[in-house]
Each structure stands twice: as C-alpha cells, then as structure tokens.
C-alpha cells in the first residue's frame, strides 16, 4: 500500500516475554473458569498449556497440524459428550476455553498473540457468567493485567523490566480508565428484556423446595451461601422470633410433605396484635416463593398471597429481588375454621402405626386439652433421649416409627415431621412449615444475613380460640438451634464452620457482598431509570442516558486531552525572580519593552528611581552574574537573589 | 512508472495538503506537537473494538453487571491508551540528522538524534522500507540509524519519513510525517578499471621526510608532540624536553589529479575516473592534489583530505 497508513510487517516470532505473559494470562483464565469445567477437561487443558509453554522455551515454532487438528476434534468431542451440545452456557464456555488453549499451540507471530489476548479477555468474561460476586469480579479483573502486559510486551524497543514489573505496568492505565469505566457502567442503557433467548439457568443453586422429606435438607444445611438479607424498620425481632415462613405443607404421603399451590383462594383471616415492617433482598432461587417473617399482612407488589399466607411472586426469582412488607409477630391466625379443615388431619393409611397409636393414646389421656397434648409431645422430644444431628441414620418405610422409637436422631425436618404426624394422630389440626430461622445480625450494615444453612422446618398447630400456633419441636431437643442459629446447633458437623473468628469475619464481610449485590449486581433497568431521582428527574429514559453518557464521555475526553497536552515548562527560578522584579517595577510605570534586554531595562529603571539606584544596580549585577557566569547557577545564590527581589520595595519615597 | 495509487496520492497531496497531512520540508530541530500528530486505530484496534461490542451486548443481554463492568473497564483502558500513544510522540524533538559517506548506488547511513525530556517507549521511525525502533530514557538523546538508498551522486534531499508509535497496547497508531529540510551528499561511483594517472614530472623533488620508523634525531619538544615520542632519558640531561624524531623516505610519488588531463571524455566518466584515482590514492596512502573547474584542492593526504576531494567531485554540476 502506498497511502502510508498501512504497512507491510515482516512476520517475526514474538519474544519470549510476550509469550510467557500470554501463557500466564491463559493460565489465569483456566484458573478462574476451573470451577465450572469438568475436572478432567481442566486438567487436560492445563497440561496442554504447560506443555506448549515448555515446548516453545526449547524451540520456537508452531506446533504442527497433525497434533493440532486431532486435539481440536478431541476437544469438540469431549464438549459434546460432556454437555450434549456446543452452545449452552457451560458448553460454550468449555469450548471457548479449549479453543483459547489450542490457539496458544499455533501462537508464533505478533498477530497470533493479539488474537490470543482478545480471546483471553473474552473468556475472562465468561467466568463472570457463573459467579458475579465482588471477589470473583475483582479476581477476574486481575486477569486483565497479564493480558494488557502481553500487548505492551509486543511493542519493540522498550525499557527493560522484570516479569513482575511488566505485569504491574498496565495497572496505571487501568486505574486511569476506572472513572470512565464507572461512568459508562452507570449510563450504558440496560435492556429491560433480553435481545435473544433468556439465559439458561442450568445451574440452579439448591434452595428451599416445595417438598420436604426427613433428611432432604442435608445439602441445604451445609450450603453457606447467603439466601437473603433482611433489614427492619426499627429494632429486629429477638433471635427466637426470627422465623421466615416459605411453604406451608399440608399433604403427607408417608415419605414426604408437599405444598400444593392453589391460586384463587383468599388469604385466611388474621387478627394482628403487633406488626413489624421490613425489607427482604432475596438472592436468586429460581422459584416463585418469597419467604416472609412470620405471618405477612399483605403481599408485596408483583406477588400474591395464598390461602395459608404463603407469598408467591408472579415470576420466578431469577435475579436478586427486594421486597418490602409488614408481618404480624403477635397474631391470631385463622381463629375460625372453614369447612376445609379436615385436610389438616390427613394422614396416609398404612404408615407409622406406632406413632398413630401414641398420638391416639395422648388424646385419651388428656381428653380435650389440645395444649397438654402439644406439651406432652415436646416433653417426649426433650426427655426421650433424642439427639440433634445433621447425619442421622436412614429411616425405613415407617419413617416416623423408626425415628421416634429406634434411631431418635435427626434434625429439624425429622422433628417437625414427627411432631405434625403425632398431632394429627391425636386429632389436632397441624401442618409443617418450611423456611428459614435465625440468621446473623450484621451490626455494621444493620441487616440480618440469612444463609441457606439457616433453612428450617417447624410445625403449626391449630388450637381452639388461638388459631394457628407455631411450635418448633427442634427447639425442645436443641434450644441452641433457635437461639444461636443452625451453625452453632450443628457444632462441628459443618465442614465450612471451622472457627469462630473465621465465621465471624465471614459474617461481617457479608456487608461488602450485600453492598456489591445492591450497587452493582442489582443495578438493573429499573434502578437505572430512577438514577436521577435525587435530581428531580423521576424517569431517566434511554435518550437521556445516551445524552448523559455522551456528555460524561466528552468530559473525560477533555480531561484526558488536557493531561495529554500538558507540557511542563522547565522551571527557571532565575527567570521567575526577574519576572517578579519586572512586575514590581511595572507598578511604578517602568514596564519592560518588547525586546529590551535585562541590563538595559534595569539600568533604565535605576535612572527612573534614583532612590533605588544602588539597590537596582546591585540586583542587575547579581542577575547578570547568575545568568552568564555559570552554566548552571548555584541554587543558594538563586535563592538569595529571589529573596532580595522579594524584599525589594519599588515605591519611590523621595519622588 | 508509478502505479495508480502512488499517482493518486501524489495528486491528493498537491491538491489537498491539509487532508493528506502533507508536510513541506522544515528546518531542524523538529518538535512533535498536537498540530502534527495524527492517531488512527490499527487493524487490531478495530478488531478489539468489535470484540468489546460483542462483550457489551452479551453482558447487557444476560444482564450481567459484573461482565459489563469488566467490558467498560477494558474499553476505557483501550480508549485511554490512545492518549498514551499521543503522548509518546508529543514533545519529541528531532535535533539533528547526520549522514555518513556513501557512493551512488549504495545506501547511506543516516543518524537521527532525538531528544526528549521524559522516558518514551517503542517509537518507530520509517524511511521507505527501512524501519528502526527505539526508546528514550528521558535523560539523554537517542541515536537512531537508518539506511537511505541512493542512486546518483550529488546532493540528495532527505525523503519524507514517518515517526510513529503504537505504544502501549498496539490498538492506536500515533504518527507524524518528518521531513527535515536537509540534504545528504552522495559521492560519485568510481569506474571499475582504467589507466593510472600520469605520474608527476619529478618524483624526486617530492621526496621529503616523513614520520617513519627510523629514529633520525632528537629535537626540542613542540606543543602537540605525542607523549610517547618524548625521549625521557635524554630530556633528563637537558633543560627542556627532547622528542625523538622519526623519518621515513616517502616512496610514493605525489599525484596531481587534474580534470583538464581527461580531455575528450564525458563529464560523468571524468568524475568516475577521478573518483577511482582518489580511491587508489587513499588506498595506497599517497598524497594528492585535485584540480576541478572552479575548485582547486591543494596537496594533502588522509581521510579528511580524501573526503574533501570526494565532496568536491560529488558537487560538480
């Protein structure tokens, strides 16, 4: 080409430094994506990466095609075998990372390296599709360092630097780019609905389910991910009142309890004694149910309340959802039964004969005193040799019989299930409620952190004149479960629950996660539209955002240009001192003419100010000495001259 | 015959100098400033911005704010690299250009002295197909050497050169034309073979003492005598320093090279012959004088004398 802009490049092998940095960047990509790759694929790719790095250290050159092509076929095959397709989120990520590592095999020229760096940046982003927590985002952002350092290393002729130094060199650029990045992040218009297929959620985290069978919670109870965060208007309820209801389960089939969603019945009556207002930020569950503290009075927006005051959202909670509502903490819940109350006594036929017999015997013993029967059951759990454990022995067909009379060990699910069966056998309407109980009160952020491991199951019994009353049989066995929380109750049974200070730190650190979830992850189209509410603009539409983005970007460009165009004048203290003297004399109407030399000017000034003649002549001599007698005037003399100029008073008192 | 693109470019530069960034030759020193530095994205820069666009749409579609933040950060860093590219040229000064010696047809070595008050990396200077890259540490000057092909003897103006840098990320190229108004002198090419010059009339007359290997006598020290020639032992017995004087009879006769001797030849052929004689004289360490129309160079020897004579030859019309 002759236009001058395009040039022919001779293809040369890239230097060892660029290749090392590129390999490092790719290793980083592999590390941050390792968690959601099959372990064997991650291992194989790490091996391929290491081998190629070693091989190129021995001898520069591309890996021949007869190695590359079979590897490519093998990778495609492996992804198809593992995921069944090539284009899902997980499959696509695995394929992209595999291709990235294979790209390294043929990386030899600067062009290859640049393609590799671009692809590295892309695959860094894929790691964020799986986890967008603050720590993982920060770690992934660190991966930009080797990528950008690789690009720098490609440039010829630069000051030599060690590997750590060259790794850190893009840091200044990234730091300078941060304000613009944040501005763009705030103002880039969000899509209110996705452009193409909704993201497939093929990795739903375990959460509360609408079925409960004794032993089914085990996975949930060992999951320490946050489930929700609750902030209260006013003081939080005491720990033993922090029951968050999710599902109310009526049906028992001998194996598990289940919730049946009936949409069109009005909520049961509720007489509110005392209420509390609060806000819950629920992390994605991919289910409809919204846990609420105790018994909710009204459903939040975009949600409806079922008959048993279970709150169901209109859409599954796929992104973090914040809802505000108020709940009754002292109440009479459904004090009068309607005609459907038989279902609270339902028991499957042919299961748990000994349990049923026990319940019926209590009914005979206590007559119509339902409260006494409840107490009898709690006394049984407390004094009957029951043990709280997260790893109970397995139960047989008559699960409740086995639990109550043989194994006598289990956790909340076992106790609530057995209690409810006992109550129903005694003829007391009873049901199982699942949800969360407890949580960690974060003083720093003034909110309650509820983890998945705080999942809990308890019972509600209907007592005449009082309505539904919450009874937590687990508390009878292990009061710490309710007063101190799930982790304390489990003792050493949770592998993530190691140490007090560590756990304390994790709980306190959650305030940062919460901030991140609110400020970054949860900044969606809706929040963006209300961005300018503090400035009186209630609805910020896409056009406004675009204009703001343009203005902000222009502003940053102006700042950047000012920096780029800034030229530091080499400071000359001597000249500055002379300027000061000129200013002082100019006030006496002795201005320096254009092209007038300092000597001429100062002697003219001396003539004009006879009283200052001696002083001015001395200053002139000093100036000329400093200026012309030295290559580099001594600093002390220059300072002395400046002082003399400063002390000079031009006002002519005699004249 | 230049191709169509070259002719188009030539036409555009004549007609639209502002658009084609055409710069007339200018005096040294040349300082880079914002009015003459241009920035264009490189191919990689364009490809990378496409990738950023894909990442942006992906992050927006999956409403993944962390990915969006990462994309914004990367995009802002790329944009900021444009300013860094600009700054790596801004304020750079071309102080001087020195040329070596070359005869027509060979390439002449140009040494560019570039000065900067702050460190700069990965700056490249293109001259035709030749390219050199250099870094500046902010204290001293960088000396960049490039070869300029030559064709004919005489003054040759420096061509337009391109100073550019794609530092730091290779996404933007900041560049500027560099066209110092300076010419380099290309010496004439010597003929390959021909007769020797007719020797001067009286060789013996030109025999004279030259400094040689044999010790001839001691003489008083004069300013400028080399220290190793001082006869320390002898000096110790005298008031002043004595210096050993060496002598060597000059065996080579002096050549008087004269344009007028080569009557009947074409000018260029005369020049080529004189150039060959000069080369031979220099090779055999003869002393020689040169007469050219309008220029007479007296007797002498050594590299400087040779260069003076060659320059005079090169400058002939």
Evaluate the radius of gyration of chain A.
38 Å
Total number of strands of chain A: 19
Helical element count of chain B? 6
N to C succession of SSEs of chain B:
HEEHHEEEEEEEEEEHEEHEEH
Outline:
Chain A has 655 residues and is an alpha+beta fold. Helix content of chain A is 48%, strand content 14%.
List keywords for this structure.
heterodimer, A: 655 residues, alpha+beta, six-stranded antiparallel sheet, five-stranded antiparallel sheet, disordered N terminus, B: 317 residues, four-stranded antiparallel sheet, elongated
Topology:
The complex is a heterodimer of chains A (655) and B (317).
Chain A: H1 16-33, H2 39-58, H3 65-83, H4 89-105, H5 110-130, H6 134-142, H7 144-154, H8 163-168, H9 170-187, E1 211-212, H10 218-221, E2 226-232, E3 243-249, E4 251-252, E5 257-258, E6 270-282, E7 289-290, E8 292-293, E9 295-296, E10 303-305, E11 311-313, E12 321-333, H11 353-366, H12 370-383, E13 387-388, H13 399-407, E14 409-410, H14 412-425, E15 430-437, E16 440-442, E17 447-451, E18 455-463, E19 467-471, H15 473-477, H16 479-483, H17 486-490, H18 500-521, H19 525-529, H20 542-565, H21 573-587, H22 598-608, H23 613-628, H24 635-647
Parallel strand pairs in A: 13-14
Antiparallel strand pairs in A: 1-5, 2-6, 2-17, 3-8, 3-15, 4-5, 6-12, 7-11, 9-12, 10-11, 15-18, 16-17, 18-19
Chain B: H1 4-15, E1 30-31, E2 38-41, H2 43-61, H3 65-89, E3 93-99, E4 107-115, E5 120-127, E6 130-136, E7 141-149, E8 154-157, E9 161-165, E10 172-178, E11 183-186, E12 209-220, H4 232-236, E13 242-249, E14 255-258, H5 267-283, E15 288-292, E16 295-300, H6 303-315
Parallel strand pairs in B: 14-15
Antiparallel strand pairs in B: 1-3, 2-10, 3-4, 4-7, 5-6, 5-9, 8-11, 9-10, 12-13, 15-16
Helix pairs in contact in B: 2-3, 5-6
